[in-house]
Design a protein that fits this description.
It is a single chain. This protein is of the alpha+beta class. It contains 9 helices and 22 strands. It folds into 5 domains: 6-40 and 203-226, 2-Layer Sandwich (Nucleotidyltransferase, domain 5), CATH 3.30.420; 48-114, OB fold (Dihydrolipoamide Acetyltransferase, E2P) (Beta Barrel), CATH 2.40.50; 119-199, no CATH class; 246-348, Aminopeptidase, CATH 3.40.630; 362-421. The strands form 5 sheets. Strands 4, 5, 6, 7, 8 and 13 form a 6-stranded antiparallel sheet that branches. Strands 15-16-17-18-20-19 form a 6-stranded mixed sheet. It is globular.
């Protein structure tokens, strides 16, 4: 996914950040390989907070926690340390595993929480509730892995664990030790705070920096370790096009001779493959594109693929290649192989809302932010310091409620926006 030649491109719009990983090489054809749309507001995945237990539901094997949001947080009992028995009114330090801000037909879903704390920095991840010392799978040599384990062990207090991230392989032992000590100090300070929010993680799009060698951005500070550079002409349009394409149900493959049809349900994501190519060539083209689509869309949970009809002996190498692609993925992904029905089943950890949830979870806000961005861009192109934006009443009301986006348009972009109901 990343590696040599991978460039992180990102730009700011009022109310949200768009970022993508661009691998500009002959095999990738200059396409976006991974994508993030980070919208302001709410709790981000990775946020550490102090919550109060509202009730323990033994039938659901879960705890509902007041975290200062509209809906209570949902904490599976399996995500608490063994032997922990929470009770009503108890104060707990927890981390957001999944913001899950989308709406269902029944109710707003609260954030999914975990008691397994992971405090991330540039070189390491502190795991204060486990004593395990882990080295990233991407650090391959035995000597490097041993050195990093020893460095972490020397810097960590007894009973606290950590993970050495990929960049730690190139850092000095002193730099790694200093960062780990800083993380330990942050954790100790958090335990004394009343909350609710004790720590907010870096922007979600910074995750893509682990797979990039360069950064180009607009109205954004670069991630740690990267030099600032301006977007190249067409970068923003490339990101916008990738967002729109990743929301489409059908994805052309093999130069239009085939397609993927991707359907999401409450239980799983189904991917159908059809086209005019011979079955084996169609399967190879489809399975080469599927990992990219899963990353772009942020798909998680159960993914079921209905492949072209092939003998298992012919389909097996294609499935093995899919497993190899996901082996180095930072998001835990398991390719379970062929089911009895001839389907390929994948499970993938959920680390963020899907792109569809970000865009469709609050449709009035999405329409408002899109219109605001277009108005600001027009004003900038015409060198105007103000613009009147007329929107449908419900959309205008939602955008007014998101006052930060209007303030950002004025203060960061230099365009004062006057909203009018249409």
């Amino acid at each position: 996914m990343g590696g040599e030649g991978a460039v992180l491109i990102a730009y700011r719009r009022p109310g949200e950040t768009r970022a993508g990983l661009l691998r500009d090489g002959p095999s990738q054809d200059g396409r976006i390989q991974d994508l993030r749309v980070d919208r302001d507001g709410g709790l981000a995945a990775g946020t550490i907070l102090r919550g109060r237990v509202l009730r323990v539901d033994r039938s659901l094997k879960a705890v509902f926690v007041d975290i200062g949001q509209r809906a209570p947080g949902f904490l599976p009992l399996t995500k608490l340390r063994r032997g922990t028995d929470p009770h009503e009114g108890e104060s707990l330090i927890l981390q957001v595993a999944n913001p899950q801000t989308h709406q269902t037909g029944r109710e707003d879903k609260g954030a999914v929480l975990t008691g397994d704390i992971a405090l991330r920095a540039d070189l390491a991840v502190l795991t204060p509730r486990t004593a395990d010392i882990v080295v990233s799978k991407k650090i391959g040599t035995g000597a490097d892995r041993k050195r990093l384990r020893e460095s972490l062990a020397a810097a960590l207090p007894e009973g606290i664990g950590a993970i050495a991230r990929t960049r730690a392989a190139e850092a000095s032992p002193e730099a790694l030790a200093a960062e780990v000590r800083d993380l330990c100090a942050r954790w100790a300070a958090m335990e004394k705070l009343s909350g609710p929010v004790l720590w907010s993680p870096p922007p979600g799009w910074h995750d893509l920096a682990d797979h990039a060698t360069a950064f180009r951005g607009e109205r954004l500070a670069p991630p740690p370790g990267f030099a600032a550079a301006a977007l190249a002409p067409g970068d923003a349009d490339l990101l916008d096009a990738a967002v729109e394409a990743a929301l489409e149900r059908a994805v052309p493959i093999a130069g239009g001779k085939g397609r993927l049809v991707i359907d999401r349900t409450e239980a799983l994501t189904a991917i159908d493959i059809d086209g005019s190519l011979p079955a084996k060539a169609l399967a190879e083209a489809a399975f080469a594109e599927i990992p990219r689509q899963i990353r772009l869309r942020g798909l998680a949970g159960i993914v079921v693929i209905d492949p072209p009809r092939l003998r298992r002996a012919d389909l097996g190498p294609v499935v093995d290649a899919l497993s190899a692609v996901f082996a180095g993925d930072p998001v835990e992904t398991v390719v379970h192989g062929l089911t009895r029905a001839g389907l390929v089943e994948i499970t993938r950890a959920r680390t963020r809302p899907t792109l569809a949830e970000v865009r469709a979870g609050d449709p009035m806000l999405t329409r408002g932010l899109d219109a605001l961005h277009a108005a600001v861009q027009d004003a900038l192109a015409e060198k105007r310091g103000s613009v009147t934006l007329t929107l449908e009443k419900a959309v205008a009301a939602r955008l007014r409620a998101e006052e930060r986006a209007l303030i950002e348009a004025r203060e960061r972009f230099g365009v004062a926006v006057v909203l009018e109901d249409g």
